[in-house]
Amino acid sequence: MDNRPLICIAGPTATGKTRLAAEVAHRIHGAVISADSRQVYRGMDIGTGKDLEEYTVDGEPVPHYLIDILDAGEEYNVFEYRRDFDKTYKMLQEAGTPAVLCGGSGMYIEAVLKNYTLHEVPRNETLREQLSGKSMEELTEMLQQYIRLHNHTDTETRERLLRALEIQAYYHEHGLKQAEERPEHLLFYMDYPRPLLRERITHRLHQRLEAGMVEEVQQLLDKGLKPEQLTYYGLEYKWITLYLCGEIAYEEMVGKLNTAIHQFAKRQETWFRHMEKNGFNLIRIDGCLEMERKVEMVLRKLDEYNKKGI
């Protein structure tokens, strides 16, 4: 069994996490495990920012996992992610392959690093009946009584809100157990000044639109996915679906989507700051550094960690 620490590269959207993770994995002959709640879906490539071309370094493919494991239209949650992560991580450990966890879904990353014991939460028809007459605003207020709102866009649709309340009510009753031992890890955080991050987000959005993001959503609709199935995924899929269904104009779609992604990034930043306040050691990497310097920083910290364990 491999005892090396789990390298985790986290941060908000548009910070270059994937490229850094691939570069590091290539250098240590490792593999990347995605921690993204939407990149699990096949056919949702541009909208989720998979950047699959980043997994080729110096002409060699970098193994990557938990991407393209479900069909678009299916639902996925943190319980299923932990199950899939644990299986993948164990496989890599047994093979002696270093793992690089990479993503911006704070809840997924925290569930892994805190080693929560999760259970599959059943559908609660009684609770859903009790909530049937409540507005989206009332449901959101109820959810905020349980948790900080995280970056999985639980308030985007009524179904997401109901499911989130269902899960939180279950854990409020049964408890959420944290294992005594956390996995050994190094948690790196991609850090950019906010003005520059805003520029990167807007620039990336226009790049993705030019790359065919609207056409990607149209293809999913043409394959038979219902609009409500796509709006469930939030952000790009919500606003582009509204545009394709004729509910908003193109310019309005772009503007509102740009605003929504900026808000999403701020929620991601807040999530990781909260993790830091709760005891996680975030090793901040200046996003403005050249890639080689970023890679060297990760490898240096890894070497220091391994020497302490000798």
Task: Please give the structural blueprint.
Blueprint: E1 6-10, H1 17-27, E2 31-34, E3 41-42, E4 56-57, E5 60-61, E6 64-65, E7 70-71, H2 78-95, E8 99-103, H3 106-113, E9 116-117, H4 125-131, H5 136-146, H6 158-174, E10 177-178, E11 185-191, H7 194-210, H8 213-222, H9 227-231, H10 235-244, H11 250-277, E12 282-286, H12 291-308
Parallel strand pairs: 1-8, 1-11, 2-6, 2-8, 3-7, 11-12
Antiparallel strand pairs: 4-5, 9-10
Helix pairs in contact: 2-3, 5-6, 8-10, 10-11
Report a brief summary of the structure.
With 310 residues, the chain is α/β, with parallel strands linked by helices. It is built from 12 helices and 12 strands. The chain folds into 2 domains: 6-118 and 176-308, Rossmann fold (3-Layer(aba) Sandwich); 119-175.
The end-to-end span amounts to 17 Å
Total domain units: 2
Largest sheet: 6 strands, parallel
Name the CATH architecture of the largest domain.
Answer: 3-Layer(aba) Sandwich
Strand order of the largest sheet: 6-2-8-1-11-12
Overall CATH class of the largest domain: Alpha Beta
Strand content: 5-15%
Helix-and-strand structural type? alpha/beta
Shape: globular
The count of β-strands is 12
Q: Rg to the nearest angstrom?
A: 20 Å
* Global mean pLDDT: 91
From the 3D structure, determine the CATH topology of the largest domain: Rossmann fold
Q: Which regions have little confidence, pLDDT < 50, spanning 5+ residues?
A: none
Helix content: 40-55%
The run of helices and strands is: EHEEEEEEHEHEHHHEEHHHHHEH
CATH superfamily of the largest domain: P-loop containing nucleotide triphosphate hydrolases
